[in-house]
Specification:
The complex is a heterotrimer of chains A (113), B (450) and C (405).
Chain A: E1 2-4, E2 13-19, E3 22-26, H1 31-42, E4 45-46, E5 49-53, E6 57-63, E7 67-68, H2 72-80, E8 92-94, E9 104-111
Antiparallel strand pairs in A: 1-2, 2-3, 4-7, 5-6, 6-9, 8-9
Chain B: E1 2-8, H1 12-23, E2 28-31, E3 48-49, H2 60-79, E4 83-84, E5 88-92, H3 95-108, E6 113-116, H4 118-124, E7 134-138, E8 142-144, H5 146-159, E9 163-165, E10 172-176, E11 179-184, E12 187-196, H6 202-209, E13 217-226, E14 235-237, E15 248-251, E16 257-260, E17 264-266, H7 275-288, E18 297-307, E19 313-316, E20 323-327, H8 333-348, E21 372-374, E22 379-380, H9 381-388, H10 397-404, H11 417-428
Parallel strand pairs in B: 1-2, 1-12, 2-9, 5-14, 12-20
Antiparallel strand pairs in B: 3-8, 4-8, 5-7, 6-7, 10-11, 11-12, 13-16, 13-17, 13-18, 15-16, 19-20, 21-22
Chain C: E1 5-8, H1 12-23, E2 28-31, E3 47-49, E4 58-59, H2 60-73, E5 77-80, E6 84-89, E7 92-97, E8 100-105, E9 108-111, E10 115-117, E11 133-135, H3 136-146, E12 153-157, H4 161-172, E13 176-182, H5 191-198, E14 205-207, E15 209-216, E16 220-227, E17 240-243, E18 246-249, E19 253-255, E20 283-285, H6 296-314, E21 323-328, E22 332-336, E23 339-341, E24 347-354, E25 358-367, E26 370-380, E27 386-391, E28 399-404
Parallel strand pairs in C: 1-2, 1-9, 2-5, 9-20, 11-18, 12-13, 12-18, 13-14, 21-28
Antiparallel strand pairs in C: 3-4, 6-7, 7-8, 10-19, 15-16, 16-17, 21-23, 22-24, 24-27, 25-26, 25-28
Chain lengths: 113, 450, 405
């Protein structure tokens, strides 16, 4: 498989192959790229970011780690169900969303946007 | 109530007539289909107050233009809107044609016309190409904002007792015992006399009134707008052809530069810009001027000129003495508007009373502008709120733009459009997704499934 | 009011500049037109920021907050929000606030006012002026701050990073991105954004294509688009139509540098030296208002340079040197900075953008016939800024940057 590493802006062109039962990543320029290559080959994951808009405040959110790629939309639906609550940057809004090991945390708080 | 007059069409002609009627102390209502004043031909033209040498001597165009040019100066002062006699030049190398234009102008009653040579030309227009040798210089020509002019006329009328209805789409008109009943889907307006100045919608209204219709034709003119610049300081025309006054370069009253218009006869009312049109403007301008600051291009638009024959139609209907028809008002319509209004009200309707003293309208701009919302044009929150709460409220993004210029600058609203939407929503008790750009279905945001 | 340094614009470069100027011992006033610090980062809610500067992957708001927290902690920095700089005059900054105009006297000025998006008018987009045509950044704010979509069926013109990011955001929020059109033969955005924003969602991306006309009645209802020839003119025989209710433009950013005094030397960009000082003494410039950065981290880096030297300038500690010029080959579209102070110690970085895509080449910097810096690059693309470090002590006359090998 050939892909582009999304870990940082360099965007290394990765080649991921299974050689003798072992997954080999080439083209990466750091260890994160190797991990990404293996993950992309076996079980692609993505970080989800979104925002929640309430009358006087908008919270911007992210998942603390990447979610299984095909379940990102499902996670987004969960997030959109959250009703208003007072929170601050860094607060966890949902723990282990869609039973993954990712939490949804507040990354920004925009009052009267 | 039954109004003395109903003016149908809120363009420059309608607003000028409306204002004039109010001055005669008569009750009047201004009826406009769109959500704001001046959204048709009035918002999309060159913004020029012509001197009056173009039209054939003896025509209504010549008469109203020269008179209008004279009236505008005083009127603009009174309305507290900017107007400037920048002057205009018709440039070319055919001295005979230029002299003919000059003679015609003089016959029309235009003052201060002069043929100038290369030296003077270079001084007035340093960016004009060297090979252009002569020009007819008309010092009385000027620039004005056509939509601000119309809005101010309407506002002053409203402050002084006039009524208005925006978004009033006429579905039928009936006449009973010399009273017109003007219907929309959910409303009726009654008036004794009616002026049809509905522009592109003229024939539609005439049908309802059961009066004369005219063979109305559309001619599209495309323009390029440049950001504020000193590229030209007065309006530069080529020698006129039978398609009109040709492509010009002119400053606007706000300091922008307008290049255009093209002149293309079209079947349907369509305000799109085209590759051919824009290329034509660029080709002409680049062949006539040096140092064209095209890197300051901020917008293109097109406007529709309506015509029904060579001259304006300004007359009483032969079928109904209580109806006045104003049709085919293309160039020099803006320049002629105050004179047309004067003629319609004082001559055709014989309202001979002295004009009453009008209460002055207050400007949107203020010392205390508040937080700057439009960065390109430096427009403050309080100024936008003043426009929203004006006698004729601005409730669309484009209505705000026309009144205070928020969104008129180089970023074209990229940075302030959402702020403007928020201010309209907050001040009018609307939801953000209800805010429109201009017309009744032009929602800025996605509003949900239909 | 009086201060040492006025920083205009509180985005990543402005905040970093303020912090660095303060570090030199200068009193700093940081002015921003918005009601919060952070600039455009606040609306960039996606992740991928900060790996270079904070060594950690952050979202835009997090990156902004980290810097903002440092700024607010710094006793030497005063922050003035909701304040619009009307104009600047050598040692004076004229600020419009809700209370009217205020004049601030200072010794040096840092302009970090960012960029604006190129508009439909600047690319002569044909058709009617309809509701539903917006720049990608406007749409980004609409969705992320107000929770509103600009449309439900979207065509994106241009493949700049904001456009790519918006393709993903719109898709996740329930809109259908029908097409992304790019007039060039390659994307101007980062490769990883093509991967994670376009390919992840199977959005068609057509290179060498552009919109020929926007149609609709009151809102957009569709666009015509076509392939372009080598002169970027549409080939009309390839014209097609697609239904959509929204067109987003991601066709470039333009430095918003109109505040600079008229006499400021400008070429393709404002001319600066390695200290980010303009040709007007005491006026420094950094971030997207100078040139467009791919990353907030790079804008921060540039802010720190401008901040440091503007601080020293204000305190009368900035030394004068002879300056040399950085020239470059036709493989390079521009180098930043244009001028270098001929110092004897330390290093400086030349940032550059290539004109074309290159594989496995060297970036070289020559002073006379000597190669004084050389760097191997696996891939160089037009979309990605390259950088190369040079030692001041090796600079001996004007420099020449090239891509070789």
């Amino acid at each position: 498989m050939e892909t582009i590493c999304i870990c940082c802006p360099i965007g290394c062109r990765l080649k991921v192959e299974k050689i003798d039962g072992e997954i080999v990543v080439t083209g990466n320029s750091c260890p994160r790229g190797k991990d990404y290559g293996i993950s992309e080959f076996t079980f692609p994951k993505r970080v989800l970011t979104t925002s929640l808009v309430f009358p006087n405040v908008t919270y911007t959110l992210k998942t603390t780690t990447a979610l299984p790629k095909e379940r990102v939309k499902e996670a987004l639906k969960e997030i959109k169900k959250i009703g208003y609550k007072e929170c601050n940057i860094g607060d966890v809004l949902i723990k282990n969303i869609i039973n993954s090991d990712a939490d949804v945390v507040v990354t920004g708080k925009i009052e009267n946007a | 109530m039954t109004y003395d007059y109903a003016v149908i069409g809120g363009g420059i002609i309608g607003t000028a007539i409306f204002n004039k009627i109010i001055r005669k102390n008569k009750s009047c209502i201004l009826i406009e289909r769109e959500l704001d004043i001046a959204t048709g031909a009035t918002k999309a033209n060159s913004g020029l107050v012509h001197a009056g040498f173009d039209a054939e001597t003896g025509s209504l165009k010549a008469k109203f233009n020269v008179r209008g040019n004279y009236l505008i100066e005083e009127l603009a002062k009174e309305l507290n809107i900017p107007f400037k006699r920048t002057g205009a030049l018709v440039v070319g190398n055919d001295l005979e044609k230029l002299n003919n234009l000059k003679t015609r102008g003089e016959n029309n009653g235009v003052k201060e016309l002069e043929i100038i040579n290369r030296d003077k030309l270079k001084e007035l227009v340093p960016n004009l190409k060297e090979d252009i040798k002569y020009a007819l210089y008309a010092k009385t020509a000027g620039v004005i904002s056509p939509y601000i002019f119309a809005i101010a006329l309407a506002e002053e009328g409203v402050i002084n007792g006039g009524d208005f209805k925006l978004g009033f789409e006429i579905t039928n008109i009936e006449e009973e015992k010399n009273i017109f009943k003007i219907y929309s889907k959910d409303n009726i307006i009654e008036a004794k006399k009616v002026i049809n100045c509905a522009g592109a919608g003229f024939n539609e209204i005439s049908k309802f009134l059961k009066v004369e219709e005219y063979p109305i034709k559309f001619r599209r003119g495309e323009y390029i707008v440049l950001d504020k610049s000193e590229f030209v300081k007065l309006s530069i025309f080529p020698l006129p052809t039978n398609l009109g006054k040709g492509i010009l370069a002119t400053p606007t009253i706000d300091g922008n530069i307008l290049l255009g218009p093209t002149a293309e006869d079209i079947e349907d009312y369509n305000t799109e810009t085209t590759t051919e049109g824009i290329d034509k403007i660029l080709g002409y301008i680049n062949s006539t001027f040096d140092n064209v600051p095209l890197n300051k291009t901020i917008r293109q638009f097109s406007g529709i000129r309506v015509s029904c024959g060579e001259d304006f139609v300004v007359e009483k209907s032969k079928k109904n003495q209580n109806v006045v028809l104003v049709a085919g008002i293309n160039s020099p319509g803006l320049s002629s508007a105050p004179a047309i209004a004067e003629f319609v009200v004082e001559e055709l309707f014989e309202e001979k009373a002295q004009d009453k003293i009008m209460k002055r309208r207050s400007p949107y701009f203020t010392e205390n502008a508040g937080k700057i919302i439009c960065r390109c044009e430096k427009i403050g929150e309080n100024e936008i709120i003043n426009a929203i709460n004006a006698p004729i409220p601005a409730i669309t993004v484009d209505a705000i733009k026309r009144r205070v210029r928020a969104g008129m600058g180089r970023c074209q609203g990229g940075q302030c459009m959402l702020e403007v939407c928020k201010l309209i929503a907050r001040n009018k008790g609307l939801k953000l997704e209800d805010i429109k750009k201009e017309s009744k279905n032009s929602y800025i945001m996605f509003k949900g499934e239909n | 009011m009086k201060t040492d340094v006025v920083v205009i614009g509180g985005g990543p470069s402005g905040m970093s500049a303020a912090l660095k100027a303060s570090e030199q011992g200068a009193k700093v006033l940081l002015v921003d037109v918005e009601s919060r610090l952070g600039g455009i980062l606040n609306q960039c809610i996606h992740n991928g920021f900060g790996l270079k500067h904070f060594k950690e992957e952050l979202t835009g708001p997090e990156y902004a907050n980290r810097l903002a927290n440092e700024v607010y902690k710094d006793k030497n920095i005063e922050v003035k929000l909701n304040s619009y700089v009307n104009y600047i005059d050598k040692n004076k900054v004229f600020v419009l606030t809700e209370k009217g105009q205020e004049i601030i006297e200072c010794s040096s000025i840092i302009l970090s006012a960012g960029a604006r998006e190129r508009t439909s008018g600047e690319i002569y987009l044909k058709g009617k002026r309809l509701a539903g045509v917006y720049t990608a950044g406007t749409a980004q704010k609409m969705v992320n701050f107000y929770g509103k979509l600009p449309g439900k069926k979207i065509v994106i013109l241009g493949s700049g990073d904001i456009g790519l990011i918006m393709a993903r955001r719109m898709t996740l929020e329930g809109a259908e991105v029908k097409l992304v059109l790019e007039i060039m033969g390659h994307s101007s955005g980062l490769r990883r954004n093509i991967r994670q924003c376009i390919e992840d969602f199977n959005i068609p991306l057509l290179f060498n294509h552009t919109i020929t006309k926007v149609v609709g009645d009151e809102r957009v209802c569709g666009v015509y688009y076509a392939e372009v020839d080598e002169n970027k003119k549409p080939k009309l025989e390839t014209e097609k139509y697609i239904d959509c209710d929204c067109v987003l433009l991601s066709v470039g950013l333009i430095p918003e540098n109109t505040l600079l005094p008229k006499q400021t030397l400008r070429e393709k960009f404002v001319v600066v030296d390695d200290e980010r000082q303009t040709s007007v003494d005491g006026i420094f410039i950094c971030g997207n208002v100078l040139h467009i950065h791919d990353l907030a981290d790079n804008a921060t880096e540039e802010g720190e340079i401008a901040g440091k030297f503007a601080g020293l300038y204000a305190l009368n500690k900035l030394k004068k040197y002879v300056k040399v010029i950085i020239n470059f080959s036709n493989k390079i579209s521009y180098c930043m900075p244009k001028l270098v102070n001929k110092k004897t110690e330390g290093k400086f970085t030349i940032y550059m953008r290539a004109n074309n895509n290159f594989i496995k080449k060297f970036i070289t910097v020559k002073s006379g016939d000597n190669i004084i810096a050389k760097k191997f690059c696996v891939g160089i693309t037009t979309g990605e800024m390259q950088e190369i470090e040079v030692e001041y002590s090796k600079v001996n006359g004007d420099l020449y940057v090239d891509i070789e090998g």
